[in-house]
Write a structure and sequence with these properties.
Length: 353
């Protein structure tokens, strides 16, 4: 049965990746052992770790100045780990969505948070480009893609202070100059792998400037010193990431994916704008290419529309519980054909009403 998976996270992954990952759970690489049974100190796993690290660096075009960690606790734990490791006195944040807001709340435990811009009052429907990053802040934090409302930063500011970015929902979806960032983090369950693992990419030069004592697991230096396996990492999720990254490379890397993602998003936004039953509430220039949100202009049609798409084996189209409406998450692995199918359903609904 064909299923059209528009889940926001955990979300769709390439079929090939799922297949190989599943096989490895039965018999990893003809070892006679399940991937779940191998030691995280074995050569088998060390190979996986090194390969995954190399793939991240190659795909993002990062130098050896960067260290790649595969941590647990989700992007959510990074909301605290980042200020714990980087904030002496104050940091500057953009409040562009619910996740950004959550990051701010956590950072406030560690010092003064300067919120340079907030669109909370406007329900996060746009992202300002007019803010000034104070030089005396220890770092600047932003969220590249706001998963819940469906906005995306298309450009990033230039600044002399370290730039920290939560890329949980659009990492590996487009080409960026990743060397302009000093810390990038992304939980794996959106564009990479299973949940329970977060990729943290750190420019080594920003680490170790803090005097406070930090609990071991929360201290980036401890993970570096222990060659990225301070404790037992999420072996399964790291392995599956490796497969996804190999898939990304085989497709032609980020430039190819960016083109595809743009195509998919453009088609869907065009339909939302054209179809007189639907609307998108985001400023056009800030619309996300990963999470496309839309609403029925007449709320009373919701039940009818829901019946139709659910019957067609479309899943995960409900908007986030905090805003309602609809959200089509169209991550890397979602085929163009699935977007075309959704558009057909929207057109058919318009014809019937
Ligand atoms: C999903 C998401 C998070 C939270 O990730 P967890 O792994 O659940 O902690 C944080 N930030 C963004 C932008 C997200 O999309």
């Amino acid at each position: 049965m064909k299923i059209y998976n528009f889940n926001a996270g955990p979300s769709i992954l390439p079929k090939k990746v799922i297949k190989k990952s599943a096989q490895s759970v039965i018999n990893y690489n003809q070892t006679g052992l399940s991937l779940l049974e191998i030691s995280h100190r074995s050569d088998d796993f060390l190979n996986i770790l090194d390969k995954t690290t190399d793939l991240v660096k190659r795909i993002m075009n990062l130098s050896d100045d960067y260290i790649i960690l595969f941590l647990q606790g989700g992007a959510t734990l990074q909301f605290s780990m980042i200020p714990y490791n980087l904030m002496k006195k104050r940091a500057a944040y953009l409040d562009t969505g619910i996740w950004a807001f959550n990051a701010i709340k956590e950072a406030e435990n560690f010092g003064e948070v300067k919120v340079l811009f907030s669109s909370k009052k406007e329900k996060y429907t746009y992202i300002s480009k007019n803010y000034k990053i104070p030089n005396e802040a220890d770092y600047f934090h932003c969220t590249s893609n706001n998963t819940i409302i469906g906005t995306q930063m298309k450009t990033f500011p230039k600044t002399t202070i370290p730039i920290v970015c939560d890329m949980s929902s659009d990492i590996f979806s487009r080409e960026l100059n990743f060397r302009e960032f000093d810390l990038i983090y992304a939980s794996a369950q959106k564009n990479i792998s299973s949940s329970g693992m977060t990729i943290v990419i750190i420019n080594k030069k920003i680490i170790g400037k803090i005097k406070r004592s930090i609990p071991s697991y929360l201290d980036y230096r401890i993970h570096m010193k222990n060659n990225r396996i301070f404790n037992t990492p999420n072996v399964f999720s790291i392995y599956t990431s490796m497969l996804t990254l190999e898939w990304i490379e085989s497709k032609g890397g980020l430039s190819y994916l960016e083109q595809e993602n743009e195509k998919k998003a453009k088609m869907l936004y065009e339909e939302i704008d054209r179809n007189h039953l639907f609307e998108n509430k985001i400023d056009k220039e800030d619309r996300s290419n990963m999470n496309v949100t839309f609403f029925l202009k007449k709320k009373e049609l919701e039940k009818k529309f829901n019946r139709i798409w659910k019957k067609e084996n479309i899943i995960g189209l409900e908007g986030h519980r905090s805003i309602g409406g609809y959200r089509a998450s169209i991550y890397n692995a979602l085929p163009l054909k699935s977007v075309q199918f959704l558009i057909e359903i929207m057109r058919e609904f318009e014809r019937k009403i």
